[in-house]
Amino acid sequence: IFIIIIFFFSSRRRHTRYISVTGVQTCALPISRSEKQFKQGLYDNALTTIELTLKLKPDTETISHLKKIKKRIKEVTRQKKLSYIKEARTLLSKLTQGYSQAILKQTKETILWLNKNKENEKDLHELITKLEKHLSAGVKQRFEAARNLYSKGKTQEALSIWLELKELTPEHANLQSHIERAEKVLIKFKELSNKPKLENKK
Q1: In the chain, what is the straight-line distance between the N-terminal and C-terminal CA atoms, in Å?
Q2: Can you say whether residue 42 is alpha, beta or left, with left for phi > 0 and alpha for psi between -120 and 50 degrees?
């Protein structure tokens, strides 16, 4: 009997402790997860975690914590948007001076971010449109420059440009065919250069 009583109280303490810890973990888990996502810059994921948790109607303290994280995310996003807008306007000025691969890549990244966060801001839409026009013009210009190099026998230089452009515009209609053609030419050159030279027979 003594052993049974000890077992009963021991089990009860474990059960009570389990409920207490589980309750704390249930509240802390979404807070911890959204905090981690926020620190990693995964703002969309953090907001999703917060919204899903709020739908479950957690306790007041958890709601307060989650709303604070949500407010911080909105502020960081707002500051980031202002930074991207400033960067986009600087880019427009640089794009009028030439289309290097680096600046086109930066333009593509800026367009993607602004498109994701544009909402209903008219000025932002106009800014994106201008950047897209420059990106398209830059890709076309570099594509034709590579074709010109290819026609002059500078196959490796042309291929390098086309491969860079593929990173920017993988959907480009003629890019892949030009890349494949240049690669075949380079393979052929390599095969010919590796052939042993035959001595001239008199």
Answers
A1: 115
A2: beta
